[in-house]
Structures are given as C-alpha cells and as structure tokens.
Amino acid sequence: MDYIAQLNQALQSLHDEGRYRTFIDIERSKGQFPHATWTKPDGTTAPITVWCGNDYLGMGQNPIVLNAMHEAIDATGAGSGGTRNISGTTIYHKRLEAELADLHLKEEALLFTSAYVANDATLSTLPKIFPGLIIYSDALNHASMIEGVRRNGGAKRIFRHNDIIHLRELLSADDPLAPKIIAFESIYSMDGDFSPISAICDLADEFGALTYLDEVHAVGMYGAHGAGVCEREGLMDRIDIINGTLAKAYGVMGGYIAASSKMCDAIRSYAPGFIFTTSLPPAVAAGATASVAFLKTAGNLRADHLTQAKAIKLQLKGLGLPVIDHGSHIVPVMVGNPVHTKIISDMLLEQHGIYVQPINYPTVPRGTERLRFTPSPVHGSNEIDALVTAMDELWSHCALNRAEEAS
Question: pTM surpassing 0.85?
C-alpha cells in the first residue's frame, strides 16, 4: 500500500467535487460581535462580519458570562483535573446541572463535553439498560444521533423525515412488548424545519415508547425561558430525555441530557463516553451556568433574533433567491452545486468581508448544497443590507436561477 498516494487520492477527490473544507482563521472581537478579524493565507488581516456562527444570541461576548468565567478561573485554575468520577466533579458542575434540570423541568441533568458526545453516549448506552430496545430514528437526525444508534448494537428503524404515518407503520410492525424509544430533533438545522413533537409523543404513548428529543438548535432560543420548542408548545413533560448544547445559543461549550433522576443515574453509571472523559473546566461550567440563568429572563433577545431572521428572509426572497423558510431562525439559501457554493462563499469573504461557510455533502445530500446564514440580534440593518446587496450581485455573477421576483 502506498499510503501517501492513497491520502493524496482521498484529498484530491474532495477538491474535484468542490467540497474540500477550508478552515477560515478568524478572531472574534470581544464586545463587537458579529465583527471579527480574518487572517488571510498570506498573513495579512481584514475585518469581516460573521454570518455562520452558532453563537446565536451573542452570549459568548456577554459580560455576565465572561465575569463568571473569570471568577471561576481565578478561584480554581484552568482544568477540572479529572473525570467526573475521579476529582472532576466541582460545585460549578453541580450548579450547572441543577440550572439545566430546572430549565427543562426535569429531576436531573447530566453534563457532557459536547452535545455530540451526549447524543452518542446516551443513545449507544440505552440498549445496555433496556435489553432488546428498538430505536426509531428520524432519517435526518444529526450525525451524533446516527452514530449513537449505529454503535449501540441493538435494533433500529429509520422513519422518513417527520413522517408520522411511516413511524406508525414501523411501530405497528414490531413486538408490542419490546422496549422502544423514538429519537428525533425539534429543529433540523440544515433546513430549519420543526418536527411534529406532539404527534410523535401521541405515538409514543400509544405504543409504549420512550421519547428522546435533541433540542440543540432550540435551547436558549424558544420558549418563555429558553428551554426550547417543547417549552414553547407546552410539551416538556411528554419528553423522557432532552438533549441540549451549551455551545450555541448559550455561547460557551458542552452538552447535556435532562431526564429523570433514575435515567441520568443509569447513563452516568453505564456510558463510557461519560465515565472516561475529563469533565468540563470549571470556568466553562460557570460561564454556561450564568448564560442559562440570564437567558431564562431574556425573552427580548429571542424576539429580536426572530425579527432579524424574518427580515433577512424577506429581503432575500424578494430578490428571487431560493430561501428555505419554515419559520425558524435558520436561513438556508439553496445553491445546489458544491462548486458554485464554494465560489460564492469565497467571493463573499474576499470581496465583501462576509463570512459564511458552504454546506456540502455529507452534511446535506448531494444536489442540495447551500449557504446557511445565522442572523443574531446584533446583526444590525447595515450588516443585513450589505449581505443582501452582496448576495444579489454574486447570484447574478454565477448566473444562478432565481424565482419570480416579488412585485
């Protein structure tokens, strides 16, 4: 085996398809988000506006969060020093778990280093706790959920995206006495569409299944206290396990599940992804706690955010650009070609100081390549106008199709 040649071939295939991923070196400007500094490949720098970050509400720059982190690092130092079982559990971790349990109206919460790890570890561990478990997974679930389901060694059923009829068919075909769990998301981040949570919960009740809901792109963003779409729809009590992240709307890092005390205790006791991983640094846990507590009372930020998302969708659709609009805060603009997607992304950055990453396969299916914009409450009218003008120009430059323009 010529390993170097094989590596070259693997990388070249990505270049040939136009989906080779390039890291953009940026430094966010504290207190000035969404503005940042881009360090170009030649070492020079330029100011840019970030339009693809997941720090949806700018909480990564919030003084309340930063002060909490400074206080914790001054008090305890940098790292946690171990796994949760071996010296890595501190008052900061316990406070954060209590804050999250309260947010979701659950008995307990369990911290992980990321929501990816939380999904993977939990879903791969459940069959150890419930022998013979069948997992019913939405076809468009996140890679972390897919990996957890794949690794668990148990039975799985994939139902068509948001298709209640297909899910019912699958549930009906299986042993009524077998333990079951339905795994799905509240908001699917590539299209920005919502799942039929209530209808899925009805099926879970009918067939005696547990429910597992990924609220990663919704926590902090929806509901009176930011607990997610379930809170907005009054359904939190119908979900057995909620997965969330601290790295998006909360602006810090980490993931978690919220569930009953028994469920959290079982996952804590059986999941290798929890047992053998060093815990979050105390300063990160302190910052996340401050962020969650702050956003419980920041309904104005959530409202401002949705207003900004609606404004940019309206303007882009007015130009005839193919915007997917399901009413969420996510703004996908379909390009449908990886090369054109990369060209527009590069030109936005190099010519207009606008940073948005191309979204290509395998994140989305081939032929559905897109640019995914994530506006925030601190993207002002000037930033929106600049983006809309640049997209109009580059869409014409690439001779891409437009819908019939609004009159």
Answer: yes
